[in-house]
Amino acid sequence: MTSPAARHRQYHEGLRAAARAEAVAVSVPPEPPRAAPPPPFAVSLDEVAQFARPLRSLAADHQRTVLAHAAAAAAMPATPGRAAARPEDGPDASDYQLLLAALGADISRLRDIQSIEQRIALKRDLVGAYDDHVRAALDAARAEGKALEDEIVSTMLIWHLDIGDYAYALVLAEHVLRFGLALPAYVRRAAPTLIAEEVATAALKALGTGGTFDLGTIDAVISLTDGEDMPDIVRAKLFKARAKILMAMAAALTADPAVSAPAGAVHGALAAALAACQRAMQLDGAAGLKKDIERLTSAISRNAPPAGPESGPDSAGTGESESQADDPADTDLSGDDAA
Prior knowledge:
This protein is mostly helical. It has helices at residues 4-27, 45-52, 58-74, 91-111, 116-126, 131-144, 151-162, 166-179, 191-208, 215-224, 232-253, 265-283, 290-302, 322-325.
């Protein structure tokens, strides 16, 4: 049998062994779990643009409008009726610089794309990011009668022309021309020239490929740029586009013999087209409309409205009947000059 003394000694040895094991466990703490290494720092231009754009909210929109009104009201243009220099400090200046940085990033993206078609598609996706700023700037200018220089607004004018949103582009064009806003530095043409040439070129391209173009848009640009300085050849393109649209309208009116055109509609379209052709040739003798003028002059003589009950043949042209006037063969206006 184990003596009481031996059992006492074993008990105390067990206590000392447990104490030593606990001391070792305390002195060597467990290794903490290893964290995954952080990813390499890399920010794309797209991410820069997203961070630079202010967050959109009703409160932010209201603040942007208030700041735009205040900035426009405080503006002191160097020339009355012209855009004033934009202030370099203040809350409106900060918001503007942030959005301008985003625009710079978007322009860099566009410059990396060679395809015009793809650039236009991207612009169509991007313009919405600048709508709030543009709306605030235009509202402030209408309310205060003054405006600030604004590269964002002038750039949006160009982009809306590029994407074919002519209704909104004309709103921006009116603002740019009224207050004399400068276009971006990379644009060589003056604003009136750019507006007229881009719209006229788009119209002539559409008509030349069998499409259509809105006459009201051409007429609005002619009116908007009337009195503005631009090369004569550019203004001639506007009137050439107007003539071509009117000629297409006259041809459409007589395309279906079963459908009677409104009295005088064909003659009116032909006469207006002839006047536009003549004006274009006055501005640019190489506008390529000589054959069109000959065809229009002949068609007008054949499509003159009939004489009224109190007027003789001389006062009514040839005195032909409306059925003769609407003969499809009388408006052979589809041919274009080689020039």
